[in-house]
Design brief:
The chain has 13 helices and 14 strands. The chain has about 375 residues and is of the alpha/beta class. Helix 4 runs antiparallel to helix 5 and helix 11 packs across helix 13. The protein is globular, with a radius of gyration of 21 Å.
Amino acid sequence: MSALQQPLDSAVAPPDTALRIAFFSDAFPERNGTGAYYHDLLPQLAPRVEAIEVFQPGAGVAAPRVSIPMPGDPGQRLVAPPIRNIRRRCDALRPHIVVAVTPGLYGLLGAWEARRHNAVLISAFHTDFEQLARMYWPNPIFRSLVNLVVGTANRLLCRRSRCVLINNADLESQVRRLGARDIEVIGTPLSREFLDTTPPRIPEKLRRVCFAGRLAPEKNVEQIISAARSLPQLEFVICGEGPLRSVLEAQAAGIGNIRFTGWLDRATLVKTLDDASLLLLPSTFETFGSIALEAMARGRPALVSATAGIHSWPTLRPGMFSMVGPEAVTGQLQTLLELTPEDWQEKSSSAREVALTLNQQTVDHWLTLLHKQLASWGLARA
């Protein structure tokens, strides 16, 4: 039985509903925003449904027979799912609903399992792969091939799904073109590590700035290095791994107020955010920007590029500063250096409040959505 399944005995409080749900994801847990999303969501959903299983590569799963590094980032891999093992586990679960999280081999297998079990299929559109392809693959022939493969998978999932989920309203027109009929904009959850302890009081002045994420072209980390060179009174901490790490470290050589930590587990990331005054996310492209929400949950405001999808959630704006262009990092930080201790404390309190509120609303929205889709599926079959 999966660790997320709830045993049905008198020693455990009964779930809210007798729903059984299977999640299929090609993302490794916690290695990117998509992987972290469901790693954070499922423990909060699990006590309120009968059973949940997640099918994905990663810890606790036998080594795959096929594992191919993704072009542009060998740290991420396309993994072939163990079909017989998954089929056996899915037969034991007997899911009412299948959620296909990604347009890869696991996501497509989820669509097949939904059909095999006559279950509701829901898919999620977390990443604009066409936009990423333009950044990672300048060769137009190879880029076209990638877009053809991923686009075909996305169209299949969108057309077969009773509902497609997006975490940014600006993606709606794109998924409609892919064939989605019913679309829901859904929030982003938080891990318990960010929720369960009260963060320390924010420093009275801006002193330490933190970036956390993949060291990849779309994150625009070179602008942080430029800001560190111009603002020696600030300390900059860059957390994460990615294809550009060695290049960025070379650019930062000799700058005394910048430090690279590598990838951090959740507990260490929480401590790193707690030690900072501000989360900086100067990405040129960001479907949502989960790390900004995580920082806000720790009472640390986030300075985020105006193009990031997180700005489409007006309720989160009290916890953020918006950056008009990623090239404006230094100027924005100079402005924030002028804020008073009272300004920082007010922004810190607002940031934590809005982040915790969105987390609860997201979990409730998921449950409402699952109920609605199952009910409409039952009526359609009647």
